[in-house]
Amino acid sequence: ANTSVIALGVLLAPVTLGLGAPVTFAVIATVNLALTAAAWHFLYTRTLGAHRVAATLGAGLCAFAPGMVSQTNGHLHMTAQWLVPVMVWLVVRMLRSADTGRSGGPDRRGVVTSALGLAAVVTVQIFIGEEVLFLAAVTLLLVAVGYAAVRPELVRRAGTGFVAGLAIAAGMALAVLAYPLWFQFAGPHGVRGDPFDARFFSADLAGWVAFSPGSLAGSAGAARLGAGAAEQTTFLGWPLLLLAAGCTIWLARHPLAVVCAAAAVPLAALAAGPELAVNGTRT
User: Fold this and answer.
1) β-strand 281-282 against 277-278: which pairing, if any?
2) What mean pLDDT do residues 110-119 have?
3) Which residues make Cβ contacts (< 8 Å) with residue 59, sequence separation at least 6?
4) CA of 218: how far to CAs of 188, 204, 207, 280, in Å?
5) Residues in Cβ contact with 1 at an 8 Å cutoff, skipping those fewer than 6 apart
6) Which one of 8, 57, 103, 149 is most buried, by most CB atoms within 10 A?
């Protein structure tokens, strides 16, 4: 159940039947990365107002980072991330529509259409990759809480309508997904418990500043910091961390940039797993 991409399999069934599963795999692998880059670029430029060069760099990192390229060799459900920017766009659109401070008052139609769109996108993502959906939901929750903390006046103006929109989205999605999710978890051959060891797949603290063994700056010794070759490619390296810190300081006047940086802290803590590992030693 972890790696099934039911929606993509159904959509490309004619390709599979006519040309074979390897061709379908190659098509999905290619389109996943391309669409993910395009979707993030659209979000950065049209919704967040980023400069085109910055948006291109950001979208390129989101879609073609070493971790994404490595995962696409076998885990199509992890690289099919092109609906994540759509989810973010719909959530932002819902919030802006619910803002009573708008000229002419809140856009209730915009709230409802955003909620219906979010329900549809979440439903499709369930049948593409639940792992990506879960990670996106956790990240959006952290960012929403942080943004509410730094923009309390926006919460007062748009909070009620925004929560109502989320309730509509959740209700519509649940109505469609209730039976499929029951079948997955409680139906015949349903998975019981966790088939993966959270300790094994947790992130070593030293891995954040290390270079992947597969990179030019990497070393064979860094291999022990990751659970496998695919996980090792996600090492960020200290230059990228310094760049992120520098960008956060540079953009400190923008609440969203600060909130995104702050949300990375609890996400990093969750990635560390049940026990903090430092340089291969569990503490």
Assistant:
1) antiparallel
2) 98
3) 36, 37, 38, 39, 40, 41, 44
4) 46, 16, 11, 16
5) 184, 191
6) 8
CB atoms within 10 A of CB 38: 14
3-state secondary structure of 122: helix
Sort 220 into a burial class: Cβ within 10 Å, 0-12 / 13-18 / 19+: exposed
d(CA 202, CA 151): 33
Phi, psi of 277 (to 5 degrees): -105, 130
E-strand spans in the chain? 277-278, 281-282
Token pair for residue 84?
A: 């994540």
Q: What is the pLDDT of residues 207-255, one digit of tens each?
A: 999 998 888 888 888 888 988 888 888 888 999 999 999 999 999 999 9
DSSP state of 212: P
pLDDT in tens, 188-210: 887 777 777 888 888 999 999 99
Question: Which long-range contacts (C-beta less than 8 Å, at least 24 apart) are formed by 174-181?
Answer: 176/119, 176/123, 177/123, 177/126, 180/126, 180/127, 181/126
- 3-state DSSP call for residue 110? helix
Task: State how far the Cα of 4 lies from the Cα of 20, in Å rounded to an integer.
Answer: 17
Q: Which pair of tokens denotes residue 82?
A: 């092109």
Indicate the residue type of 42: F
CA 221 to chain centre: 30
Please provide the average confidence, as pLDDT, over all residues in the chain.
93
Q: How many residues does the chain have?
A: 283
